[in-house]
Amino acid sequence: MTRIARRLAAWWFAPAPAERLAMLRIVIGGAALVWLLARLPEIYAVAQLPADHFAPAGVVRVLGAPLPLALALGLAIATAGLLVAFVVGFRFRYLAPLAAAGVLWSLSYRNSWGMKFHTENLMVLHVIALAVTPAADAWAIDRKPAAPPAAGYGWAIKLLIALLAATYLLAGIAKLRIAGMAWLDGEQLRNQIAIDNLRKALLGSSIAPLAIPFLDHPSWFIGFSVMTIVLELGAPIALVSPRAGRWWGLVAWGFHVGVVLLMNIWFPYPLSGVAYLPLLRVERAGHWLIARWRRRAGMPGS
Amino acid sequence: MQRLAAAVVSGVLVAATLSPVLRAPWQDDFPLSTYPMFAFARPTTLTMDYALGGTAAGEPRYLDPRLLGTGEVLQAYTVIATAKENRQLPTLCRQIAARVAEDDERDDVAFVRIVTGTHDAVDYLVRHHEGRETELTRCPVPR
Asked: What are B109's strand-pairing partners?
């Protein structure tokens, strides 16, 4: 192994506690469960659209025609059940990949009706990644393994951060590939925001609270455009160090708040903060909750 | 889990996530997306098809996406575009009208129109200057 490969391996496999990965399994799996349950009415609604609206995306391309409504809905409900097992860490090695496959299928099916949303891509990727890691070695119904895995747990958390960074990086690259440096002049972002809000107004939906004040002052959009590109292309900095990751995560969260205020587009996964939890020492919240519960129950060791 | 297996799993997932960079940026997919949203240059003038309600006196009423059979505004946009492409606007109009009839909050809506509107987004939103609308189909709300 060369020196560079050794340093790379030491960085990727830097140790992290099993509880951190377990906490991410619980929260990200829980977020996916809540999201899927909340999307059931929408899955039901789009699955009733005429078959000529069906435009299969991703893994759903194996279908030549829409599924019967009951089957589409049944698969989503079964996935919700599997996600419960995922969250509590029950038979994780076998059921977690099934849960991830179910999430991938159900949300791909929901995105197969002519409009691809970008609100749930990262969540799907995170669930898939967690499903193939030892994320149920702590705080799970499954019995704790006799010894921790040789690769440890830190790599799995790095993987979640890498997927997070990759999605933002791709968004930045797309802007430069499609529009080039012209994207930075602010006009394109302003026009996008104006058109998006007009479309909402014409389709009877609410427009964003800060859209109109800012649309009247176009110079602001130069700053917004530059900040967006720096944030997106700079996403890999989240992998450099925990401190850099936390700062980047805070700025990225603020960016999504800005998207709500200017476009009324809600990305619940990042807005709730769940997308950025791999950047934090989330196990502390779990330890705090357990200690609190033990104190209340009057258990020893509290 | 051995380090080699963990490295392979990591490499495959990261490579798959980044793989859309090899596609044309407008070839979007799910969940492996190029994330092309907001990347395209566009003018502020928008021509699009949408449904509008109208009172007996002719006052316009905006219809939310739910009345087009979806909770999502972008999906509603696609529903109308697809119906137009498939020459099914009159059918869609009747479906919307049937939903309007069951909506207590819209009991003043007497008819539904599907129109093509052309508006300048900044003029419309900031200066309240509406563009022009051309009616594609119209149907009564069954009461």
From this structure: B55
Place of tokens 């010894």: A147
Block residue for tokens 């009172």: B55
Q: Which residues of B are less than 8 Å from A124 in CB distance?
A: 31
Best CA proximity match to A164, nearest among A93, A211, A231? A231
pTM surpassing 0.80?
Answer: yes
In angstroms, rounded to a whole number, what is the distance separating the alpha carbons of residues A54 and A65? 7
Quick one: pLDDT at residue A144?
Answer: 86
Residues 6+ apart with CB under 8 A from A129: A156, A159, A160, A163, B13
Q: Hey, what are A235's tokens?
A: 């996403």
Q: Which of A76, A84, A120 is nearest to A102 (CA)?
A: A76
Interface check for B22 against chain A (CB to CB < 8 A): the answer is no
B37: closest CA among A63, A192, A21, A131? A192
B47: phi then psi, degrees, rounded to nearest 5: -115, 120
Going edge to edge, which strands form the sheet with B60-62? B60-62, B45-55, B109-120, B132-140
SS3 sequence of A106-122: HHHHHCCCCCCCCCCHH
- Residue A23, amino acid: M
Is residue B47 less than 8 Å (CB to CB) from chain A?
Answer: no
Q: How far apart are CA A208 and CA A257, in angstroms?
A: 11
For residue A196, the one-letter residue type is: D
Q: Do B122 and A194 touch (CB under 8 A)?
A: yes
Q: Are A132 and B11 in contact (CB under 8 A)?
A: no
> Exposed, middle or buried: residue A58 (CB in 10 Å: 0-12, 13-18, 19+)?
buried
At B122 the pLDDT is: 94
3-state SS, A215-267, equals HCCCCHHHHHHHHHHHHHHCHHHHHCCHHHHHHHHHHHHHHHHHHHHHHCCCC
- pLDDT, block means (10 residues), chain A with 302 residues: 90 97 98 96 84 92 94 96 98 97 96 89 98 97 91 97 98 95 93 94 92 92 96 97 96 97 95 98 95 86 54
CB-nearest to A179 from B37, B40, B77 is B40
DSSP H or E stretch at residue A51: none
Q: State the virtual CA torsion across A193, A197, A198, A199 in degrees, nearest 10.
A: 110
Tell me whether residues A45 and B17 touch, CB distance under 8 A. no
Three-class SS state of B139 = strand
Chain A closest CA to B31's CA: distance in Å? Answer: 5
